[in-house]
Specification:
This protein is an alpha+beta fold. Helices cover 61% and strands 10% of the residues.
Amino acid sequence: MALIFLLTGAQTAGAQSRKLEKAASDVASATANYRAALERVLVLYERELARRNEMTELRQDLFERGVLSRREFEDGQRALADAQKNVDDTRQAIAEADRMMTEARLAESLARLAPLERGGYQETPGLVRYAGIADWSLATGTGQLREWFLGRFGRALPISSYGQTALHDRMGLDHRNALDVAVHPDSPEGRALMDHLRTLGVPFIAAWGAIPGSTSGAHIHVGQPSPRLTARR
């Protein structure tokens, strides 16, 4: 009976891991398609912005010579501002897609791996994880990390995600007691942060970006792995 229970438990865990892996893979695939569409739109918006910039120089000259009315000049300025906003918003959406894809690829990779024992450390291609033994708390630990990073590097800790965000809600990830730091694991800041967290015994996961050749999305997740990935209905 005990053997049957163990086998059943292993089969259930395996099925759950495959389910989580597929859910993460589906999110990553959909996000990649969305990002590709954004890239195509960005090209069009950047062309329009360049055209508006050229027109603005001409309109400025015509306005100063009294050929163009103030209303026409201000209409052109608003059109330029709208074109710039379209470019900025699209770039921000691409960065958000990169973060979502990195989170999905991270969840996909973790679903394939066996949990680490307490205090365990593992490096795999594109992923470093450490199952620290310290009781990490977002409420009390963040301030200490901010002070350490500021003292070490002279700038604020670049937190990209603090606790639960809309992105984690959409992906079904429990990120309530974790934060993401937007530093590349290979950078001096990234290496120093990982060393510091290991010294403190704080669990973390370091992830390289999901876009080959790009640093966008690379970050260090501080806290336990975000569990409970579920497929969106």
